Amino acid sequence: MKRIPLEYAILGVAVVATIAVTTSAQAQATPATAAEKVKRGEYLVSTSACHDCHTPWKMGPKGPEPDMTRALSGHPEGVVMPAPPKLEGLWTGAMSATMTAWTGPWGVSFTANLTPDPETGLGKWTQRNFIETIRTGRHMGRGREVLPPMPIAVYRNFTDADLEAIFSYLQTLPAIRNRVPEPLPPAASVAVR
Ligand code: HEC
């Protein structure tokens, strides 16, 4: 029998291995990519402070903590805020105990419901609506300006791939029906709702 030179044998094994890897990667390409995108989105949301403001905080055994049963559902509609405190001197802003209502020179803003509820959250948003909001700092890229303290100037630096991943993840959250109040103009001294 003719001997196959060692180099060819090794090459053969490598080629077979490459084909095997490529085939299995192609077979899984679509679901793996979608699942990986959601995973990446979850990672970005958990490291980019979204829960700090969009998940209502409650008092836990070790102090205040985000209430993950209401993850990313925004300012709770049942929490009626009193008039904001008078800010003086170097104090320029304040926030509610839930971390979802904020006051400053812009008035009072309430964090949005980011869950996919169609009426009160992002259920009807497209990926494009989301990306344009973050890129332009305007609601869906064309509405009113998104108010502080939403860190538009920071999140504008996300790549499109990152924003797509974040949006994909947000759309997998349990939908929570929670209608967040409209913002109040500066110096509004009335209680909300
Ligand atoms: C420091 C607090 C804060 C953080 C952190 C924050 N947000 Fe917000 N966000 C807000 C507030 C307040 C609003 C409501 C602003 C308004 O009514 O104009 C808002 C609004 C939004 C909106 C709705 C905009 C619209 O036009 O309806 C989206 C979408 C959003 N945030 C996504 C995110 C995502 C995703 C993250 C994390 C990557 C995040 N936010 C982190 C405070 C925050």
Note the overall shape. globular
Query: What is the count of structural domains?
Result: 1
For the largest beta-sheet, the strand count, sense and barrel status come to: 3 strands, antiparallel
What's the helix count?
Answer: 5
**Would you tell me the structural class of the helices and strands?**
alpha+beta
Q: Strand fraction band?
A: 5-15%
> What ligands does this structure carry?
heme C
Low-pLDDT parts are: 19-29, 189-193
What is the first-to-last residue Cα distance? 91 Å
Radius of gyration: 24 Å
Relative helix content: 25-40%
Overall mean confidence score, pLDDT: 88
Number of beta-strand segments: 5
Written as H for each helix and E for each strand, in order along the chain, the element string is: HHEEEEEHHH
In order across it, which strands form the biggest sheet?
A: 3-4-5
Can you put this structure into words, describing what you see?
This protein has 193 residues and is α+β, with helices and mostly antiparallel strands. 37% of the residues lie in helices and 9% in strands. A hairpin with a 2-residue loop joins strand 4 (101-104) and strand 5 (107-110). The longest helix has 42 residues, at 6-47. The radius of gyration is 24 Å and the shape is globular.
